[in-house]
Amino acid sequence: xxxxxxxxxxxxxxxxxxxxxxxxxxxxxxxxxxxxxxxxxxxxxxxxxxxxxxxxxxxxxxxxxxxxxxxxxxxxxxxxxxxxxxxxxxxxxxxxxxxxxxxxxxxxxxxxxxxxxxxxxxxxxxxxxxxxxxxxxxxxxxxxxxxxxxxxxxxxxxxxxxxxxxxxxxxxxxxxxxxxxxxxxxxxxxxxxxxxxxxxxxxxxxxxxxxxxxxxxxxxxxxxxxxxxxxxxxxxxxxxxxxxxxxxxxxxxxxxxxxxxxxxxxxxxxxxxxxxxxxxxxxxxxxxxxxxxxxxxxxxxxxxxxxxxxxxxxxxxxxxxxxxxxxxxxxxxxxxxxxxxxxxxxxxxxxxxxxxxxxxxxxxxxxxxxxxxxxxxxxxxxxxxxxxxxxxxxx
Amino acid sequence: xxxxxxxxxxxxxxxxxxxxxxxxxxxxxxxxxxxxxxxxxxxxxxxxxxxxxxxxxxxxxxxxxxxxxxxxxxxxxxxxxxxxxxxxxxxxxxxxxxxxxxxxxxxxxxxxxxxxxxxxxxxxxxxxxxxxxxxxxxxxxxxxxxxxxxxxxxxxxxxxxxxxxxxxxxxxxxxxxxxxxxxxxxxxxxxxxxxxxxxxxxxxxxxxxxxxxxxxxxxxxxxxxxxxxxxxxxxxxxxxxxxxxxxxxxxxxxxxxxxxxxxxxxxxxxxxxxxxxxxxxxxxxxxxxxxxxxxxxxxxxxxxxxxxxxxxxxxxxxxxxxxxxxxxxxxxxxxxxxxxxxxxxxxxxxxxxxxxxxxxxxxxxxxxxxxxxxxxxxxxxxxxxxxxxxxxxxx
Amino acid sequence: xxxxxxxxxxxxxxxxxxxxxxxxxxxxxxxxxxxxxxxxxxxxxxxxxxxxxxxxxxxxxxxxxxxxxxxxxxxxxxxxxxxxxxxxxxxxxxxxxxxxxxxxxxxxxxxxxxxxxxxxxxxxxxxxx
Amino acid sequence: xxxxxxxxxxxxxxxxxxxxxxxxxxxxxxxxxxxxxxxxxxxxxxxxxxxxxxxxxxxxxxxxxxxxxxxxxxxxxxxxxxxxxxxxxxxxxxxxxxxxxxxxxxxxxxxxxxxxxxxxxxxxxxxxx
Lengths: 395, 395, 129, 129
Ligand SMILES: Cc1ncc(COP(=O)(O)O)c(C=O)c1O
Ligand SMILES: Cc1ncc(COP(=O)(O)O)c(C=O)c1O
Description:
The complex is a heterotetramer, with two copies of chain A and two copies of chain C.
Chain A: E1 4-5, H1 16-22, H2 40-58, E2 65-68, H3 71-85, E3 92-96, H4 101-112, E4 116-120, H5 130-136, E5 141-145, H6 159-169, E6 173-176, H7 188-191, E7 195-199, E8 210-214, H8 240-278, E9 282-284, E10 295-300, H9 305-314, E11 317-318, H10 334-338, H11 343-346, E12 349-353, H12 360-379, H13 382-390
Parallel strand pairs in A: 1-11, 3-4, 3-5, 5-6, 6-7
Antiparallel strand pairs in A: 2-8, 7-8, 9-10, 10-12
Helix pairs in contact in A: 1-8, 2-8, 3-4, 5-6, 8-12, 9-12
Chain C: H1 6-13, E1 26-32, E2 37-46, E3 49-58, H2 61-74, H3 79-83, H4 87-93, H5 102-105, H6 108-128
Helix pairs in contact in C: 1-2
């Protein structure tokens, strides 16, 4: 059976070149970078090389890169660490309504500790209006965090415009670039942000490693206390092979970004234009243009995501959904709801995220196998039956 | 040149079997365990297999194992998470004076947040007296944390006896078993603790992965907020290859523990008995009997650790030191100072930690190369000159 | 994939008794799109027995399998017997349901009961009228 | 290993002028065992020149290399010239020192200056006596 992996937003495969780069550090070169003897030297040098590579990917100063264990850790570190370090100036933070849970729930935890959190709403494309950020800024606002792009609906947020406002007001701006760094150009200077999260497994690097970039001079409290690895900002023995892999993945992403974007955009656009031609009552989620290159997301009306996902899986296709049944919390994606979709429509969420191994044939395979699945499921859907009887949509 | 790695306390090499177990997850099997499609299945199953293996290592219930990114993260999670979750009952926590920085500095951070921290002193062997713990327990004590064994001086602490006290008083007891789990028998039921930290790179598993065991029913607040991986207790895409490696390393440690202990104990005892016969004015640090099997630690009087370490390194030997110059914070080991050593003596700290690849020849090589180094350095030491003139020790 | 039993997968892939009954004797609806699962059961009753049972389901794999299984368990049974079908007995017949799926998707028995109640209600009204 | 320059490694491995001078004209001690580095300098002065310089050092590689370098830089110089030796000039001659090592281990120049001051002090006293 054809196997088609279209869930690169969940995680990407490791590039062979990245694995090759990691291998020595899973073998001979096992030293601890903190060690003063010659077993530590190559490990330490490898970590510093990776730091240069990651800094290069986002146009940062090398010493400003802090390696972490995941995108989630980077976000927790940023939100909690920046808020805690600036507590004397105030206790109000602003995030968008479509942030990843690692930002959202970090903010919830801060609320329990006495911080106040404002959520900026989004429009029907999931886009934040910078003026909505401005309106929420108060005298005691100490942090704004808006993601660079959303992994569920692909929408790219106007970070540059938000940064103009936060800069003017002298408030640190963090952006969760887990979905963008290594995928589209990300330059911390051009964006104008003060802190930025990224993760290896989003651009063909390893799992278990991420980075937080924090502009020099911006104070942050460590999330992991202990030894003085990472300039005293993130304790713990460095995960050398994973860091090396992240560095290599960053280098390859920098070198091949244009070509990758070209490929992914073509595949995405093919699916986005052709799927609605094959299936009625399909809504594209996220911004129609300002979206991640390999990211095609839809809601298919009258039916539910998990059952589509299961049928697709039986056809060898891997996708995601933001439906309640596919989430372990059994709640429909907060991103879809924040974008104004009804719960009913949100249950029909399907998310195709292409990767650098994807092909036109993959798209065509989807266009072939999905319509009969939709038909089948609609035939047993009470919502579809009602719609047909009423002769109109139920939205 | 002979290469002799005697710094296994810093990190251990990856066992070939462990690497082999990890390899598929750095290749074909790259799925996200949270994914509902068939790319997620083998990743999820592998993580659950590893959970069984790690639970087996420490005699825990499988569901009680939470995977983390390092020993440091496990300790931060335990100290901060247990304290925060029990804040309503009180705000006093007790730790020992010889804890690893990841415990010690977590406690410092809690102090900044309004918690009160008592430190239990240790005797000259670095051993905690359980009665000293008892004396510090107050009505508002919500957490006690004492490490299972110290990585710098090898001393094994009387956790069972401390657990009797904390159980009687109904206070959660955490133990940092990073230096013991996978090395000596660790059974959470026998120890009687409520939470326990361990790390992969201490027993021939990978870097970048650890685990926290928390007894069912003990409340803990997440350190990493976000998705609901790890039962909602530790968010972030699982580091599948590293978790698989940790599981395999745990399995091998369980199977081979007795043989390993026998080997390591013999090497340790050979060095501990013979080094003082070859070099005058050597002090053994840590407990003479109740110590980690592969752990031989000394202070060599009148000279400083880094210069010994450099000379040993030039002879192909890797060791550690607790001297100020070898620490990045430029402070002598708090463990040595807490054990009552003078700063002067602490500067002469040398730490040999054997591993399963170590041999009798390694010990003999040390006994051959170290004495001339010590002689050479003492010849240029003003302290040694004074001592010789005075005709007596300077301790 | 969610850890579904073979039985669940079978009923998900080949659901029995899908559809609508024209002029049914009773209709029962359960669930709502917010939690992601919704089921409608249609019944035809003859001599106190469920002569026909059909359903429509919007929902996850488990919800579809549950509906199918309920329809199969109910068909041909007396009303009293059908009212004894419980979420637990459905789950048992399906050789288990994932823990987190139990409550949300296992609404089939309730939907069936509602259809029977609807029938009984109508009967009462018919008698009264 | 700490990132030491070749020059540092050379002086660490082959320190020049190690030892004590019998009946020195001046002695200077700097540092203490708490911070981990301690140096003693001995000087012999003739015609306002450092005829001989020796040292003893307890400390890390950098501390040993610094002492050795200072002794080499000072030997044969006039007192005035020797007093112009600074931690920075020593570090420069050593082709750099790791940043975190600069302060703690780079006490050689001070120890030398103390020895010279000791000598000058004694001279003064000798003149006064
Ligand atoms: C935008 C964004 N932020 C953060 C994360 C968290 O990454 P992880 O689960 O790898 O820690 C993700 C994961 O997909 C994401 O899409
Ligand atoms: C007793 C103990 N606890 C915790 C740690 C922290 O481990 P890591 O630096 O791998 O996070 C160590 C490291 O050696 C240790 O010895």
